[in-house]
Amino acid sequence: MSVASPINRAASGGEDALAALTALVRADLESCNRLIVDKMQSPVALIPQLAAHIVAAGGKRLRPLLTLAAARLCGYRGNRHVLLAACVEFIHTATLLHDDVVDESALRRGQASANALFGNKPSVLVGDFLFARAFELMVEDGSLKVLGILSAASSTIAEGEVLQLVTQNDTTTTEAQYLQVIEGKTAALFAAATRIGAVVADRPLAEEEALDTYGRTLGTAFQLVDDALDYSAAQEQLGKTVGDDFREGKITLPVLLAFERGTEAERGFWRRVLEERDQGPDDLAAAQRLIARYGALHETVERARHYGDQALAALQAFPDGPERRALADIVEFCIARAR
Amino acid sequence: MSVASPINRAASGGEDALAALTALVRADLESCNRLIVDKMQSPVALIPQLAAHIVAAGGKRLRPLLTLAAARLCGYRGNRHVLLAACVEFIHTATLLHDDVVDESALRRGQASANALFGNKPSVLVGDFLFARAFELMVEDGSLKVLGILSAASSTIAEGEVLQLVTQNDTTTTEAQYLQVIEGKTAALFAAATRIGAVVADRPLAEEEALDTYGRTLGTAFQLVDDALDYSAAQEQLGKTVGDDFREGKITLPVLLAFERGTEAERGFWRRVLEERDQGPDDLAAAQRLIARYGALHETVERARHYGDQALAALQAFPDGPERRALADIVEFCIARAR
């Protein structure tokens, strides 16, 4: 990859980067949002009701934004990327609905989750509907290549979710397994979302792969930061929920690092709270102290930064311009959330 | 449709018809079974473990058999139908896994269900995996037309399942809604399974549509009989489980007919047991007596026979031969189960 035009980390805060990306593709995103609402309709009224709850619940639309911007980065001037961005969001929404059932989550984006409000059963089935509908829309688009990328990403997501379930409550989980989980459950869809930008623009394989790398490393960074935030005292001070992963016994990098570096007594603590799920009211604070003692949050964010640098490097395959700058800044957006 | 060569109802018992259909496409079915085992593999060991439990649990493989036989009926001599039959079975298996979670079923085909054995969470996620894998395999096959048929069937299945959930425990459900449920949850996949037989053989639209009609009406008949069997005293005498639909408060045709024809006191009974789900130990027997009193089982099977006759009529678009005879006899197999 060329190093002629190095891309610097954005100096600005993260939220500005998301606003800038959104502004850059605003017309496309508005078309995409209309399409999402239009295509989630069904004569079975509960389907759009439940789907609207999660689709309208104020998500960032990060994944469809990435598809829209990646297509423009590749010089695409048509309209297919709008429909494919909607497909990406449908697949994402389907996985959120199923995740919340699997995690028994009561909240999603600060509001009652669909499963809490409508029950687990319709959440499973409406997830299935949105997933099937995504494939119907891809067929409408007509690219077997896109269908191949998004169907492969979908099975990889499911593999990541199953592996997460298998490693849950198991402190013998390795860092390699943890990485496999987050590359499956998060990075695969980011990679597919950006890669199809090059596909609709009919760009050479090298650009497809560069965008795949950008999305994959960005998604990995995004998830690492998410996993750090779940133990962040700063988040708590902002009034945000922390400790979801802790309560579910998910084995994330902050825990793995603190466990690895801890004393035998501390490992006993982790086994009790995460494996046996025997948690008292002070245990989350104790876990946060251990994670802080071993610099595990800092290191998790450093690893995210490492992946973020790879994402920036991958963008160098493309000419400078507003799209490349916006996509570079989004790397900082994903990481700066950890501040 | 030609009436030159009427097809008579099979005189033989149903099980013979299934054996005959299986024998007719035995080599293809064996290839299909190998492909199913091969393609459900994953580095995440729980996926093939759980999938094997349901895939190997002695299903009839009725839907893939229909795809294989329909392709041969259309004179197809290649191998694509084997892979597509596996896709159909993957989609079916995914819906079974999710159904059992939604219905909280402890048994499936007389064995512990996957959700009872492995838990709800992996059942949801492995269903997602199999569904995604089906689409990966269709992309491998490379027909956008097949992808269109099976993605549309998949969203229709989900719509049927959601509608079933909405009408559950609601004795104001209409016969039209009931038909919409079974056409979604069962008939849509039967129709797709047979239709793609004509698609791989590159046959004219009229034959595609004839096979679609055959599958759709056969699937409707199959589900009507299933719904009758759940209240059948004869089944009970054979040691088979009855009353699952009753316990879940599903509104099926035998109930709808008995409710419609019942006295106000009897309707009160149905409301108590199905809407309020206030069921005592003698209530299933009482329900069976009411259903018998109004001939509701007999009439449900008569309706199935009516759909079965439509399935037979649709087959007349094809020349006589062993495939057409086997597919005609399978209609009787679906209905004769009610004896």
Automatic annotation (TrEMBL), chains A, B:
Keywords: Magnesium, Metal-binding, Transferase
GO molecular function, one term: metal ion binding
Name by which UniProt lists this protein: Octaprenyl diphosphate synthase
Uppermost EC category: transferase
Naturally occurring in which organism (per UniProt): Dankookia rubra
Catalytic activity reported: 5 isopentenyl diphosphate + (2E,6E)-farnesyl diphosphate = all-trans-octaprenyl diphosphate + 5 diphosphate
Cofactor: Mg(2+)
Biological processes annotated in GO: isoprenoid biosynthetic process
SUPFAM superfamilies: Terpenoid synthases (SSF48576)
EC number of this enzyme: 2.5.1.90
Record function comment: Supplies octaprenyl diphosphate, the precursor for the side chain of the isoprenoid quinones ubiquinone and menaquinone.
